[in-house]
Amino acid sequence: MRRISFNVLFFIKKTKLLKNGEASVCMRITVDGQRIETNIRKSVDPSSWNQAKECVRGKSRKANELNSYIEEAKIKLHSIFTELEEQGSTISARILQEKFFGLDILKEQPKTLLATIQEHNDQCRALIGKDYTLITVRRYETCKRYLAELIQRRYNKDDLLLTEINGEFVRAFEFYLKTEKECKQNTVIRYMKCLKKITNLALANEWITKDPFIGIKFHEKEVIREFLTLEELKTIYQKEFTVERIVLVRDIFIFAAFTGLAFIDVQQLSPEHLVRDDNGNLWIRKPRQKKQKYVQYSLVGYTTGNIKEV
């Protein structure tokens, strides 16, 4: 049976001193490299703190009380750890923290990966048309579905604590996307960026203390796009179709090819995007969906028009 690593450390926050000049004392619980920190609501003069021995120098009443608290806390945490280990129960830094303080003292429930992504996705969906597009939200939703599948297969669980997400899990997700989902490199990177946004959110909210993406880098592959020649476009343009729906698809494709507009931009075209210049010539003027840059296209000389982004 694999031995679980466990450690508890007390330290002070010298960079964020209190108004009285003292430093807060914090407790850090680490289990298998995953750690969680708690402010124990006690403070000391930074000059009296001995980090090597994790105690306060001196024999004052305050020093004795704090040192006793630290010693008793270490004993209690080791006792909780040993009890859980003997029972074969799941052990994590968050679980040890909860059992040490008591569930009623910790108001916040442990944050899990899929629940956090769902909360993020719900907020994104509410901002469609403002800060997000539908295709972006759908990508986050697909990412959550893939993560749920991986967690179920690899860990036989419905969800994982955020504190359980580490570099090993990140690499496992990348491998899963490439093998089980047969995603290409650039598609894999898009989903990995979705996961990284969630872990960055967790770091910013101090739900986790270590970035699971440390040392992990992704490189997109250059995509060489082939372009249709004018003769090929003419062949498509002159092709006769008996199905009206296909005729419409052909016309939209030809229009997009000559204007340079993406499908989503063509889909969003409306009469308000048609403007006339001083000479009475018609122009298309609208913001691009992707870059939000305005595109101007002259409808004079349809097959020879030029695109100009401003």
Outline the structure in words.
The chain is of the alpha+beta class. It folds into three domains: 6-101, no CATH class; 113-204, DNA polymerase, domain 1 (Orthogonal Bundle); 230-309, no CATH class. 44% of the residues lie in helices and 17% in strands. The chain is built from nine helices and nine strands. It has helices at 61-87, 93-101, 113-126, 134-155, 167-179, 185-204, 230-238, 244-259, 263-267; strands at residues 6-17, 23-31, 34-44, 49-50, 55-56, 274-276, 282-287, 294-298, 307-309. Strands 6-7-8-9 form a four-stranded antiparallel sheet, with no helix packed on it. A three-stranded antiparallel sheet has the order 1-2-3. Strand 6 and strand 7 form a beta hairpin. Helix 5 packs antiparallel against helix 6 (185-204). The N and C termini lie far apart (65 Å).
Question: Are there runs of 5+ residues with pLDDT below 50, and where?
Answer: 301-310
What class do helices, strands and sheet pairing give? alpha+beta
Question: How much of the polypeptide forms β-strand, as a percent range?
Answer: 15-25%
Shape: elongated
The radius of gyration computed from the alpha-carbon positions, rounded to a whole number of angstroms, is: 29 Å
Give the helix level as a range of percent. 40-55%
Number of domains: 3
Number of strands: 9
Largest beta sheet: what is the strand line-up? 6-7-8-9
The topology string of helices and strands comes to EEEEEHHHHHHHHHEEEE
Q: First CA to last CA: what distance?
A: 65 Å
Number of helices: 9
